[in-house]
Amino acid sequence: MSTTTKKTKIKNIAILCSGGDSPGMNCAIRAVVRTAIGHGLNVYGITKGYSGLLEGNFKKMDASSVGNILQHGGTILQTSRCPDFEKSEIRTEAAHILKRKNIDALIVIGGNGSFNGAYKLHREHQIPVIGIPGTIDNDISGTDYTIGFDTAVQTAVDAVDKIRDTAHSHARTFIVEVMGRKSPAIAMHVGICTGAENVVLPNQEIDLKNIVDDVKRGIDRGKHSSIIIVAEGEKPGLCHEIQKKLDSKHGLLAHVCILGHIQRGGNPSAIDRFIASRMGFEAVKCLLSNQFPVVIGYVEGQVKPLPFENCLKKKTEYLPHNLELLKALSI
């Protein structure tokens, strides 16, 4: 693991959220703040991510700052996307701001794009950084889990269960679009957990005949409803394209329901609360032991520091055993 060997005295740390929000971020923030204060450190929250850092939006936090936030979705620090942070001169300005404000280390909660910015900040300016994976897509390389995934899946499952009720009542087929972009994780899990007749995954060739055959097989054995789960992908309108082709080429009528950003919000699940709290705790412990730069990941049921460079890419593959399970149960 590529971590520092030089002893650095950490006294003042800052924390920010970057990219899309996810349920459980507040739990990680709370854990960082209270663990750090318990060890005599000063903690500063940066509002609105890297953009807020560049604007100097720092506020000192205490134990009361994170009281009663555990159960709330989103992030009390707010978040943003900051394309300018990809520029080296912008990162240089960010490093100068951190030094002027006497910040000794930075904790970043976000996805792989946010991690790339943090890692470059460390490589170029020797800023001690720790990453905490926070994205509902569960698409960060190196870690088995990212904060918010469980809550997003449960939110989508609850919605599809309700759609199934009305689909059954009217003997209809529904195409339900879930979030995930390039990641198949949400679509795969929701498909399995809701008994979907078919799941369309990102970067997968769409087999319309297979979808129709799956629906007809269910009808032939007495089913009164069918659910097709579609991962949103990067190009909008995929579910409507599938709907039109199913109708025009196969005579299969289907209704479209796009769940959208409802999957990002809501109270974090117990799993997300626990893992996020553990990650926040471990992030501070790593700083105290001069173990950086690292990402606090989740591997084989354990929360632990991982080499930062292992967590800089998107994870877009789907696990073969999950695909096998999906096919086995959707007959």
Q: Summarize this, please?
A:
Helices cover 41% and strands 17% of the residues. The protein has helices at residues 25-38, 49-55, 88-100, 112-125, 149-170, 185-194, 208-220, 238-250, 270-288, 320-329, and strands at 12-17, 42-46, 58-61, 105-110, 129-133, 173-178, 198-200, 226-231, 255-258, 294-299, 302-307.
Tally of DSSP β-strands: 11
In the CATH hierarchy, what is the class of the largest domain? Alpha Beta
From the alpha-carbon coordinates, what is the Rg to the nearest angstrom? Answer: 22 Å
The number of helical elements comes to 10
Q: In sequence order, what are the helices and strands, one letter per element?
A: EHEHEHEHEHEHEHEHEHEEH
Task: Tell me about the largest β-sheet.
Answer: 7 strands, mixed
Uncertain runs = none
- Mean model confidence by pLDDT: 94
Strand order of the largest sheet: 3-2-1-4-5-10-11
Distance between the termini: 45 Å
Q: Architecture of the largest domain in CATH?
A: 3-Layer(aba) Sandwich
Description:
With 331 residues, the protein is of the alpha/beta class. The protein folds into two domains: 12-148 and 268-311, Rossmann fold; 150-264, Rossmann fold (3-Layer(aba) Sandwich), CATH 3.40.50. The protein has helices at residues 25-38, 49-55, 88-100, 112-125, 149-170, 185-194, 208-220, 238-250, 270-288, 320-329; strands at residues 12-17, 42-46, 58-61, 105-110, 129-133, 173-178, 198-200, 226-231, 255-258, 294-299, 302-307. Strand 7, helix 7 (208-220) and strand 8 form a beta-alpha-beta unit. Helix 5 (149-170) crosses helix 6 (185-194). The protein is elongated. 50% of the residues are buried. The model has no long low-confidence stretch (mean pLDDT 94).
